[in-house]
Amino acid sequence: MTTSQDAPALSIRGLYKVFADPGDHGLELSRSGRSKDEVQEETGAVVGLRDISIDIAQGELFVVMGLSGCGKSTLVRCINRLIEPSAGEVWLDDREITAMSDEDLREARRRDLAMVFQHFGLMPHRTVMDNVALPLEIGGVARQERRERAGGALELVGLGDWTASMPNQLSGGMKQRVGLARGLAMETPILLMDEPFSALDPVIRRDLQDELLALQESVQKTIVFITHDLNEAVRVGDRIAIMRDGEIVQLGAPNDVVLNPADAFVREFTQDVRLHGMVTAASIMDSSAEAMAGPTEQRYVVREDAVLDDLVPAGLSATQPLQVVDDSGELVGVIPLQRLARAMVSDEAAAAIAAE
Amino acid sequence: MGQPSPKTPLLPLVWLWRLIASPRAGQPLPERWYVRPLAVLGIMLSFLIAYAVGSEDVPIDVGRDVGNALDDAVDWLTTNVSWFFQSIKDVMTWFLVSLEDMLLWFPWPAFIAMTGVICLLMVSWRMAFGSVAALLVLAVFGLWPATMETVALIIVTVTLSIAIAVPMGIWASQSDRLDVFLRPILDAMQTMPSFVYLVPVVAFLGLGNVSGVLASLIFAVPPAVRLTNLGIRQLPAETLEAAESFGATQRQMLLKVKIPLAIPTIMAGVNQTTLMALSMVAIASLIGAGGLGLKVYQGLGRIEPGNAFIAGLGIVFLAIIMDRVTQALTRRQQEAVSGD
Question: Which of B81, B211, B224, B268 might form a disulfide with B287, Cβ 3.0–4.6 angstroms?
Fold first, then answer.
């Protein structure tokens, strides 16, 4: 790969999807700014996506979050064109997916765009090994290499001993590990995950989230991750896009979304997220010049990405405002103790301080 | 090329065709306030016209003419294309005779033991016991050669049916057009009284086992076509989506995903086809097919209903054995692909 660091791995520009819209009238109306409901009333067409533009960086874990019917699954399917977009462009590095011929598209699906599905999409008549090897088989990879890559991927997700099993012998969590291994074995730069953990029970879901994060450390893929669960989005995402009625209502880093919800709709979601793990030193610090020039606690230094819970020990024994430093050890701000105490009182107070 | 010229006298036919071919033709009339009153009015009008004209009989009757024309067509085909039918007949006769010879070459105790073992391995102890008992009864009743001839007929009929039906079903599953086109044809094959096609079959192929196989085919092919088509059409969407997302071509989708996943339903079609073929055994004997069916026919012809009954029982025994074995096959396939 010869891509530079800042060029997006995946770029979505002005993407529209309007269903049941034979004459593109719905598309035109939606473009001219009518709402989803108005378009539906006037033409019967259903707006699935409306003017979506996102740049996703190399190695980023990008989460798209929203309620069912908001268009998040449509969005991810427009990336590999399982659903054909009505208008707009999707770019993979310097290649335009939306302009590809059928053959080029197949090639891109085989080499660049792996996908993991909510209900796994395993082939019940094939063993675990043969399931993971299926995309490679379809891509024309030689048998020996197929088995090696599939075996390696299964090893990676902890199913090395299950290669000869049939899918119906596995639990839900294990099935999704197979689905994940299948995606990894394709060795694509991009991994699309459509609600991969939504069908699993909460404990397994957490395990798999942790595992995905650990895996991401080593494989560094560009991941588009769909979920309806904000807790999950916040746990795994580098950035989160929140969707409603086919539009992105907010896009930002997890703590940004949680602490500064763009509107009442987003706030509705964020209420259920536990903030203490989310509020960072950076979000409540005072970085004004006069505050930083004042007296500070000398015994403790906290990093800017330390979360509120981690600040508790320092805060309890400190007598002066805490110093906050960045990765290089540079002072970036201070946290007055009074402010820290207020932030710890309640989630709402923490959010209020962060929003100041 | 392009649109047909509007000046042609076939214009009404062109209109009619456009009407039938339009997507709307597949749906009932839309609900509008005037639809029902118009329907009632139309029916009343038809009564009025009938009274006004005063005719009780339909004024024209071309049924006989068309029927006679069809008869002439069959005559023409028999005299002019007989070389074609004869070669079909020769090939199939050879297959049937070889298969029957092979089955009869097996010593009968060996055949019975084999059937017992197959039932034991695939179905159950009880079925193994029952099948051995049933075949022993047929053997001691002097029906062994007839039973083997029927088995040979069934094997050939089912093999040919599958060879025709499965590819046809797969094709229909990929093309809505073909599906819509085939449906009434399959209906006709299953509901057309078999006596209607027995005579033309004899006209083309003469009396004999080959004619029996062909007549049975007409009845046995439809369920396998339907079930193959259905099996492929009702596969879980996400599994197909997954295969598509890996960059599978249409061909790879079909060969690596759709057909393997549809095997249990296709096997259910094989089971149905086998039973349909067996149900035609007695009727096929009317056009010269041998075996147990012939024994039934002869028994009835000589007014010996007891003998006919015994041969009929033989058909029932075969049907039960074949049904249980093919069902067990279906179940195995289902177990292999269930649980996702």
Answer: B211
